[in-house]
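Title: Request for sanity check on CRISPR-associated endoribonuclease Cas2 prediction

Description:
We are preparing a figure and want to confirm that the structure record we downloaded matches what your pipeline produces today. Could someone re-run it with the sequence below and paste the raw structure tokens into this thread? We only need the token string, no images.
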Amino acid sequence: MANLIVISTTAVPDYVRGSLSRFLTEPAPGLYVGSVSARVRDLLWEAVSEAVGDGAAVCVHPADNEQRYIVKTAGRRRRRVMDFDGFQLIEFRDTNGQSAL
């Protein structure tokens, strides 16, 4: 379970989806789940975040912190991950890019 990775993608190029499906299972469109080494996970996320273009992607994987996981995002999204004293919280932005807090 320590190597579980979840990646969700929206509007990414087809070759990115192909790369992800080589290592991970796609139980729903754009949602990839699997168990890979940290090295493979980091290489996959690097490839996804570099190629995301106008799309968006989220990666969740286990980490040695209080929440026991970490969330990474790439691309433009209305939800942003914010660090709050070591906890990752989600900030929701309105359509103008302003924080909705």
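Thanks, this matches our download. The domain at 4-75 is CATH 3.30.70.240 (Alpha-Beta Plaits).
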